[in-house]
Design a protein that fits this description.
It contains six helices and six strands. It has 157 residues and is an alpha/beta fold. The strands form two sheets. The protein has a four-stranded mixed beta sheet. It is globular, with a radius of gyration of 14 Å.
Length: 157
């Protein structure tokens, strides 16, 4: 439970190692920083699934009709049932991107979690202007995580 919100974390990537409670602490920090970030994720239980490329592609195909690999998929929750939504992240996509950009895996996965949280907060990245707003909010979200010492730690075995 984080500040009234239950955060369920599913580690579904065989090689991923992570600090216990790190993802929930990151969600707590995003929730606490909502004002400075410029948006708020709806109240309720939030699920975060850390998957392989294959696992996320299966969800992408099943629910969005596109079986290609992607990095983050967000499913909105149901306020009537007390759920905020679910953030599904490809650990493999984050590892590839981190390798190309020189960023650490932990920072890249934190970005993906923040990106999903922002989608649930109402941000969109389809149109260029909305994509710019999303990128600015991502920067604010990562700074909020850093200021609160809540960047989760991940590594691949």
């Amino acid at each position: 439970m984080t500040g009234g919100r239950t955060v369920r974390v599913a580690r579904r990537h065989a090689g991923l190692r992570m600090a216990r409670g790190g993802v929930a602490a990151a969600v707590r920090a995003l929730d606490e920083g909502a004002r400075e970030i410029g948006g708020a994720c709806p109240p309720g239980e939030l699920s975060v699934a850390l998957l392989s490329d294959r696992g996320l592609a299966l969800l992408h195909g099943r629910f969005l009709g596109d079986p290609s690999a992607t990095d983050v998929i967000t499913f909105p929750g149901d306020r009537a049932h007390g759920t905020a939504g679910e953030i599904c992240v490809s650990v493999d996509a984050a590892a590839r991107r981190a390798g190309r950009s020189g960023r650490r895996l932990s920072a890249e996965l934190a970005l993906y979690i923040a990106h999903g949280w922002l989608h649930l907060a109402g941000f969109d990245d389809k149109a260029p202007a909305k994509r710019r707003a999303m990128r600015l909010a991502e920067g604010r979200a990562l700074r909020a995580l850093g200021r609160r010492g809540a960047l989760p730690r991940f590594k691949l075995a």
